[in-house]
Design a protein that fits this description.
393 residues; alpha/beta; Enolase-like, domain 1; TIM Barrel; nine-stranded mixed beta sheet; three-stranded antiparallel beta sheet; binds magnesium ion
Length: 393
């Protein structure tokens, strides 16, 4: 007989009965990609883990929901009947047994959503927030920075104005024409117009989005552009180079007057190790809905801490991704920002109590069981063909 870890547990096991995914369609926010996302494309999905105790946990995945549904079929024999109260052991089982079948891709993305949902269940069963379960809460509030796409300079005032009016105090602008027109004057004008629209007190970050297809620039552009960004008090320069150019990232980080950020496209803890060990980043931005979930991201963040690298979460894809990022923001020392996409119905339109900024532009980090948020079934139903399986616990 194999050893059963829960045999002497004080918490009776809660068995996984089924896991379902709902692809989100119809309002997918633009990504600034050269092959732009269309509203009807699926790039985000919600996951529900149903248990025999009648408790359901929820998670989020940043990839095509139809891929997530296919991955769940592959993973089903591995998770069915597992104890949902052991997130790290169960998801490590899924990682280890799918080594040969697309690790780092769709399967890892899907395991991310499962892992987030299992932590949600463990919190709901124990009455503890995920942040508490991860070891303790360092903060009760965190600053969301509003992510917006770049447009031509004369448009940037109107791009940021509605979100400034909503109370955001930190902004990131990215993608769009920046770096894509071989026009350093245009790049500077976009940043200058945005800084003027925001005023001197707001934080501003810049993300050219070099993980886009066929990014045209290289190290020399990134070095020159970093100098320009320093003129406008830009807080970091993100994805300034193609996502596999580790040597150039190391060179850029050493030379740049502004901090260098990246890592959103990396998956699995093992992938982050060389980037952190070699000093490629000042700031690492793992995406909890892609890297393998909370269990995986927690190890990445602690590794970053030990290398002296700042962590800022990239789990903005849905309200559940943001909820997971909030719990992770409180679980490590020194986290002061979380990404928040401006104007996505998948974030603003699917919770019973949508996220709301306080007067200082901060978000509360819920200290309620699990992720501490509740999906609104009617809101979710607007963006997926059939939401019922998510709620049919
Ligand atoms: Mg980015």
């Amino acid at each position: 007989m194999p050893h059963h870890p829960e045999a002497r547990s004080t918490l009776p096991p809660v068995r996984i009965r089924s896991i379902v995914a709902a692809p989100l369609f119809g309002e997918s926010p633009k990504g600034g990609w050269s092959a732009e996302i269309q509203p009807e494309d699926s790039i985000h999905a919600l996951i529900a883990v149903h248990t025999d105790a009648g408790i359901t946990g929820y998670g989020s995945v940043f990839t095509d929901g139809r891929l997530v549904q296919a991955a769940l079929q592959v993973l089903e024999p591995l998770f069915r009947g597992e104890n949902a109260l052991q997130p790290e052991r169960v998801t490590e089982k899924l990682h280890q047994n799918t080594f040969w079948m697309g690790r780092g891709g769709t399967l890892t993305h899907t395991i991310s959503g499962i892992d987030i949902a299992l932590w949600d269940i463990l919190g709901k069963v124990t009455g503890l927030s995920v942040g508490t379960l991860l070891g303790g809460r360092y903060i009760d509030k965190v600053r969301p920075y509003c992510s917006l796409l770049m447009e031509m300079p004369e448009r940037m005032h109107d791009v940021v104005a509605p979100y400034k009016a909503r109370g955001f105090k930190a902004f990131k602008i990215g993608w769009g024409p920046f770096g894509r027109r071989n026009d350093p004057g245009l790049d500077r004008a976009i940043i200058a117009a945005t800084r003027e629209a925001l005023g001197a007190d707001m934080q501003l970050f810049v993300d050219p989005g070099a993980s886009d297809a066929h990014w045209p620039q290289g190290l020399k552009w990134a070095l020159r552009t970093a100098e320009m960004l320093a003129d406008y008090q830009v807080g970091w320069f993100e994805e300034a180079l193609k996502p596999d150019a580790i040597d150039d990232f190391c060179t850029l980080r050493r030379a740049s007057p502004v901090p260098i950020a990246g890592g959103e496209v990396l998956t699995r803890r093992q992938s982050f190790q060389p980037w952190l060990a070699r000093g490629a980043f000042d700031i690492v931005q793992p995406d909890v809905t892609k890297v393998g979930g909370i269990s995986e991201q927690r190890r990445i963040v602690w590794m970053a801490q030990d290398f002296g690298v700042r962590y800022v979460g990239h789990g903005w894809n849905t309200a559940l991704g943001v909820a997971a990022d909030l719990q992770m923001a409180t679980a490590f020392p020194g986290v002061d920002l979380v990404e928040f996409i401006g104007g996505s119905p998948y974030v603003d339109g699917i919770l019973r109590e949508p996220f709301a900024l306080d007067a200082d532009g901060l978000l509360d980090i819920p200290d309620r069981p699990g992720l501490g948020v509740e999906l609104d079934p009617e809101g979710v139903a607007r963006y997926t063909p059939d939401a019922r399986p998510l709620f049919a616990g």
